[in-house]
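As a representative case, the lines below give one protein's residues and fold tokens.
***
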Amino acid sequence: MSNLYMLATPLGNTDDITVRGLHILKNTSVVACEDTRVSARLLGLLGIQEHKKFISVNEHARAHHFVKVKEALAQGSDVVYMTDAGTPGIADPGGALVAYIKKECPDVVVIPIPGPSAIIAALSIAGVHADQFVFFGFPPHKNKRNAYFRRLAEVSQEFTVVLFESTYRIKKTLAELAGVLQPRQQIIVARELTKKFETIYYTTAGTLDANAIKEKGEFALVISKA
């Protein structure tokens, strides 16, 4: 019986790999991942020299792209799935892959290998109530963007909200958040979590100065409950 490991990888600091995760990566010969170049580089930084077979499972993956993973499992090989950074199944094809494998290979055991998560890392330093929260993913680039922020503002009346944003739209997103949230609501902007230039900004919708926030990097935002 084969195993499909859903393995969390470091957000940026390789020291954050877990002991268990390192063991799985060393001893599993087939690696399914978002970007084979990123994953190969990470394995090198972790000192893993064993030969691996890489299978690309990126954001454009559909069911037929999962066939190679199914074939490896059917042949008796264990497979480890890893994202470019963080915990699988969140803003990546991990959830779709698990659903496909559970349908096509019901005897395969899917095993979580927990570890870094940008959502949990951001909440841990936000200083807000996080016993209940809602993850809003990435805002749409164009279509339905206004509806997205209106819905976020509604949900934040009852729950803390977490979302991601890229370097290209962070200032636009902050401006839109300031326009729909109540002035007293806290906004925590976590930039480049665990990396060399990690920066955490604490502000409110009413006092937000987007120009004070460096645009370069990856962002996790936490919005406090109203």
Remarks:
- The chain has two domains: 3-113, 118-223.
